[in-house]
Design brief:
Elements (H helix, E strand, L loop, with lengths): L2 H37 L10 H32 L8 H8 L4 H21 L7
Helix pairs in contact: 1-2, 1-4, 2-4
Length: 129
């Protein structure tokens, strides 16, 4: 595979990471918005177990989202390693396209996850009784 194709694919995969972050932000915002809007309404939910169910569903989503982001990071690293050593400006190109470490992705993601879960469990959701 030539350097142009490798770079194109690495850039495309960087865009895919942004897509996964956008999906995460949309889902997290929707969960937070729904929980907050329900907390002040006269709406009812079917059982008091709604918080653990909602939290469990969010955790499953968050873990799969984080796994996809980390996998794309590994793929980007592998693609950048395939670039020819004699390529002009290779170091600058690799530096600008290399992904963050898995620890950075995990730490940032888990921080946001904890905040979403805190909203879920902190808000009072109405239910009959």
């Amino acid at each position: 595979m030539d350097a142009d194709r490798i770079l194109g694919f690495a850039i495309d995969r960087a865009g895919a990471v942004n897509t996964y972050w956008n999906i995460y932000i949309a889902v997290a915002s929707t969960v937070i918005g729904a929980v907050i809007s329900l907390s002040g309404s006269d709406a009812t939910v079917s059982a008091p177990a709604i918080k653990p169910v909602l939290a469990g569903a969010f955790i499953v989503f968050a873990l799969s989202n984080l796994g996809a982001i980390k996998q794309l990071g590994r793929l980007r690293s592998a693609l950048l390693a395939m670039l020819p050593g004699e390529m002009d400006n290779r170091a600058a190109i690799v530096e600008s396209l290399k992904p963050r470490s898995a620890a950075v992705y995990t730490g940032f993601h888990l921080t946001l996850d904890v905040l979403v879960l805190a909203v879920i469990f902190h808000q009072d959701l109405p239910w009959p009784g």
